[in-house]
Protein: MFS transporter
Organism: Novosphingobium ovatum
Amino acid sequence: MTTSTHLLRRRRFLPLFVTQALGAFNDNLFKNAMVFFMVYGVFNSEKDEATFSGVASGVFILPFFLLSALAGQLADMRDKAMIVRYVKLAEIGIMSVGAAGLLLAWKGILVHALAMPLMLAALLGMGVHSTFFGPIKYAILPQHLKQEEVLAGTGLVEAGTYLAILAGTILAGFVPVEWAAGLVVGVAVIGYFAGRQVPAAPPVIAAEPLDYHLLRAPVQLVRNTMHDRRVFLAILAISFFWTVGAVLFIEFPLLAKNVLCASKEVASLFLVIFSIGVALGSVSINALLRGKVSARYSPVSVLVMGCFIVAFEHVCGLWQALPGGQLMDIQGFIHHPQMWMLVGTLGGIAVAGGMFVVPLYAFLTTFVDKSQTARTIAANNIVNSGAMVVGAALAVALSAAGISAVQQLLMAAGMCLISAWLGWLLYRAEKAAVAG
C-alpha cells in the first residue's frame, strides 16, 4: 500500500492512471446507458434483448481482434505518450457521435433506423480507441516504474479501471439518458487534457516498417509472442477468464429484468457490486503476493470463482419476484429477504476473478523484453477478443435456442475449470523456470 500511495503522487504514473480511469468511466457510462435504455425502454422480449446485448459486445470487441497487432507495433515503435494524445483526441469525436444517438433515442426519433446505428458506430469507435490505448497502459508501466513497482502499478491500474467502471455504471443506471449524452462528451474532453500530461515514453528499439495487414499481422504477432511458455499460458488463461466475463456481462441486464424483476437502477447496482469486487481482488492479491509476480493463487482463485457462479445461479433460481410482474426498485431490493445471498455470491465471483487475472497481466509485462511489451499485450488482446466474441456468440445462440440466462451461468462456471487448469500449468512453468 505504501508503494501504491507513492505511485499515486508521481507524474510518471498519475496522469496515465487518471487518463485510463476516465476512458473506462466513459466506456461504461455510454455502453450501459445505451444497453439499459434499449433493454428497458425499447425491447420487450428476452430474445431481442440478448441479441442486442450480444451484438453490442461483439461490435466493441471486433477492433481488438483486427487492430491489436497494429496497435502493438505502434506502441513499441513510437512514443507511447504521443499515441495517448491522438487516441484521447479521437475519443471526443467518437463520443459526440454516440451522444447524438442517445439523444435521438431519448426523443424517439428514428430509434431503429438512425439512433441505434449511431450508438453502435460510437461503440465500435470506442473499441478502436481502447484497442490502441490498451497496449500502452500496461507497456508503459515497466518503462516508467521500477521493477518492484510493476505489480503494484498493474494492480492500481486494474483497481482504478474497475472503480471507474463502477462510477460509470452507477451513473448509467441512475441519470437520465439525455444527461449521459452530455457527460460522455465532457469526460472525453477532460480525458484528452489528462492524457497530455503523460510523460514521454520513447521507443526502446529502432522503428521498423509497420504491417497493416488485418489478418496476417495478428496471426504473425500471436505466433511470435507464444515462444515463452509462461506468456503463452498466461494469455490462454486470461482469454478463458474473459470468455466467462463476456457471458456474465451479457446476461446481467437480462437476469435483472427478466429473472429478478428488477429495475435498471438495481441492474446498475449489480454491475457496481461486481466492479467493487474485482477492484478489491485486484488490490488484495498484491498484498498476498507481496509484490512478487506469481500465479501461485490463480488456480484456486478461479475455482472459487466458479463455485460462487454456481451459488449465484442457485440464488437466482430461488429468487422470489414481486407479484404482478412489477419491477423492484432499490428500496425493494435492499429489503428483499434474499438480498444478502445475491450480493454475497455476486461479490464472491468478482473478488475471486480479480485475484485470478491481475498476476497474469503482470506476467505479460515482466517476462518479456521491454521492447516487446506492447506487442505482447496486443497479442493478448487479440486472443482475448477472439475468446470474448466466442463467448458473446455462444450466449446469443443459446438464448435463441431457448436456454435461459440462469442456465447459461452454469456454462460459465464450467469454463472456470479450464481457466484453473491453465493457471495450474502456468504455476508449474513458473516454478520450472525458477528451478532452471
Notes: The chain has a mean pLDDT of 82.
